[in-house]
Design a protein that fits this description.
Helices cover 22% and strands 21% of the residues. By secondary structure, the protein is α+β, with helices and mostly antiparallel strands. The N terminus is likely disordered.
């Protein structure tokens, strides 16, 4: 069948975060240098003289010492560290000592987010390295109680996809939350209901329950603030409609008009970034920096535009009419590199069945307890996959789900050749370490660029792919694709110092980089740089560790509520993020069509910012042996 498509961006921000695809986590990306404002401010606690002595008491634990919590945050980002200091000071006002530990994002993921089973043998269940089993029996390598600096994908278009975070056995539930409300059945009701009006009730109940139970403190959402050279043509300020590495170009004349005869390939696009990616093995890769780089060489299955419409890339996906069986049709122009030949449905079926697996990882050919993929749970909703022709396969879901094409299972998914996988069976480590993945040598004509060189400490450089398949489909899309992409080279250049990156942007050495809030106003006035504020779906949270190496009282809802109501959200959004963020109360942005104020329990704003009430909750709901004593 013909493909009627409008192909668009891969949603990449300058610090290597692929915003638009299936990624679950990202580091909070804005940066600023500010003094701590709002620390220690109290809500409704001052006496007539303006003096506040209600916070003088200390919360003492069963061991006779003051309760002390460890707050882990990402280092190297001034806004994050400033916000973390505000949070620590606010919680300390409750009579709880707070120590702040700053670590790199990569270390945070390895030592704090990942957790392991503490017992002998196997746990009752496991959902992967970020949720190794029941919370009482699992712990991360490094102990922590609170965590700040990580943002979660809220999936505003397909909110049922948030089950990756909020079910006991969810793969990204690294904090060990066990919901009291029946969230799972309400998400299932949302998924299997096709009437738009009837879908609102179950998702509103879920978001309301999350706001009340406070598994984390749902804090704020911020735009990606990016500076481009003014000669760049293509940026827009729309959620899901931004970066396109294939069709954007530089107006060499700088006059705002398209070059005579259309855009032509320029020398190089250079992102200025803070750090490099760790690896490129995508079946287990959720690292945002790696995803951004892989996106240059592999387009992925399909994309979704700012209107929530599927934009076919390698394939189109069609609902057969039932909302349960979907047909995936590959283009016949897709070619692997390394002499693997044409991409076929057989490649996809093999990867789904033997790498990601659709049977929960039970039946796989690898020499490990689980297959070499961190997406097994993503594919659990698929009951069967079947190749129906060389270019076509179909997916049968366990139950009706009209949102499946927009959910993060197949959307943006990469694929590797079946022969590549088979050549390494059963050695999963050999597959992970293979040159084909390390060098992305098998990418063929499947993306706008090919990997040229990679120095993990300095730069990732790709070259224009002269065989890019999309050029053959310009008649179906737009003439802009006939000569795409429009840069001879496309690179990520590591410049660790933010000031140096901004100077390089102003001097024309970089094409784009992120803009810290304290420089927002003056850079907006600069002649050489255009700033865009791009809405994105990631919500910054304060996680509460409910596993074996976190404060055990955090498993009590009212204790979590107390900590959340003690942190003034506007102090974070205004003082740390300079007004370039918006507070929220549940796991959706307030601009989401699914956000329902009537169901929401607020914390940390106006009257719901209340430290007196927070102390009362701690006194009433901590277990035996805890009490407040004068400092």
């Amino acid at each position: 069948m013909p493909l009627d498509i409008t192909v668009g961006g891969d949603g990449t921000d300058p610090d290597g975060d692929a915003v638009a695809r299936r990624r679950l986590l990202k580091a909070v990306g804005v940066g600023t240098t500010v003094g701590i404002a709002g620390c220690g401010r109290d809500g409704g606690n001052e006496d007539e003289d303006g003096d506040d002595d209600s916070g003088d008491a200390e919360l003492i634990g069963p061991d006779g010492t003051q309760v002390e919590l460890l707050l882990a945050c990402i280092e190297g980002n001034d806004a994050v560290e400033t916000a973390a200091e505000i949070i620590a000071a606010e919680v300390a006002d409750l009579g709880v000592a707070v120590s702040l530990e700053r670590v790199s994002y990569d270390r945070l993921l390895r030592q704090y987010v990942r957790n392991r089973y503490l017992g002998d043998g196997d746990p009752e269940w496991t959902a992967g390295p970020n949720n190794a089993g029941p919370r009482e029996e699992t712990a991360s390598e490094s102990a922590w109680d609170l965590m700040f600096g990580v943002a979660f994908n809220t999936y505003p278009r397909t909110p049922a996809a948030i089950d990756a975070f909020w079910l006991e056995r969810a793969p990204t539930n690294y904090y060990g939350y066990v919901p009291e409300a029946d969230i799972e059945s309400r998400l299932e009701a949302f998924r299997t209901t096709t009437d738009p009006d009837e879908r609102r009730a179950p998702i509103a109940e879920v978001l309301g329950a999350l706001s009340e139970e406070q598994p984390v403190n749902f804090l704020a959402m911020s735009d990606d603030v990016i500076g481009y050279r003014r000669s760049v043509r293509g940026p827009v300020e729309a959620f899901g409609g931004n970066w396109d590495s294939a069709t954007w170009y530089v107006d060499e004349d700088g006059d705002g008009n398209e070059n005579e005869g259309g855009p032509t390939a320029s020398d190089e696009w250079v992102w200025g970034v803070e750090g490099e990616a760790e690896g490129l093995y995508f079946p287990e890769r959720t690292d945002s920096r790696a995803t951004a780089r892989i996106n240059l060489t592999l387009d992925g299955a399909y994309d979704v535009d700012e209107n929530g419409t599927v934009r076919p890339l390698w394939m189109d996906i069609t609902d057969t009419g039932s909302g349960q069986v979907y047909v995936c049709e590959l283009r016949d122009t897709l070619r692997w590199g390394d002499d693997y030949g044409r991409m076929t449905a057989d490649d996809w079926v093999y990867q789904i069945e033997n790498v990601h697996t659709i049977d929960g990882g039970r039946d796989h050919p690898w020499n490990e307890p689980t297959p070499p993929s961190n997406r097994v749970d993503d594919w659990a909703a698929v009951e069967n996959v079947e190749q129906t022709s060389e270019s076509e396969f179909q997916l049968e879901l366990e139950s009706v789900n009209p949102d499946f094409p927009l959910e993060p299972v197949l959307w943006g998914s990469y694929c590797a050749p079946k022969e590549l996988y088979e050549a390494h069976v059963p050695d999963a480590d050999a597959l992970r370490a293979s040159d084909a993945f390390a060098e992305l040598s098998f990418t063929g004509n499947l993306g706008p660029y090919t990997l040229e060189r990679w120095d993990r400490t300095q730069e990732f450089v790709t070259a224009r792919n002269e065989e890019y398949y999309m050029r053959e489909h310009a008649d179906d899309v737009d003439d802009a694709w006939r000569d795409a992409p429009y840069f001879e080279r496309y690179s990520y250049r590591v410049i660790g110092d933010r000031t140096d990156r901004l100077e390089a942007l102003a001097d024309g050495e970089l094409t784009a980089t992120s803009i810290p809030p304290e420089r927002y106003a003056d850079i907006r006035e600069a002649d050489a740089v255009e700033i865009y504020e791009i809405p994105q779906p990631f919500l910054t949270i304060v996680a509460y560790n409910q596993r074996a190496n976190g404060w055990a009282e955090l498993r009590t809802r009212e204790v979590r509520q107390a900590l959340s109501m003690a942190v003034e959200k506007p102090a974070i959004t205004e003082d740390a993020f300079r007004g370039l963020a918006e507070w929220t109360h549940t796991f959706q942005p307030r601009w989401s069509s699914w956000y329902d104020d009537s169901q929401i329990t607020p914390f940390g704003v106006d009257k719901s910012y209340d430290k007196d009430r927070a102390r009362e909750l701690l006194a009433e709901h901590t277990t035996s042996g805890y009490e407040y004593e004068p400092a």
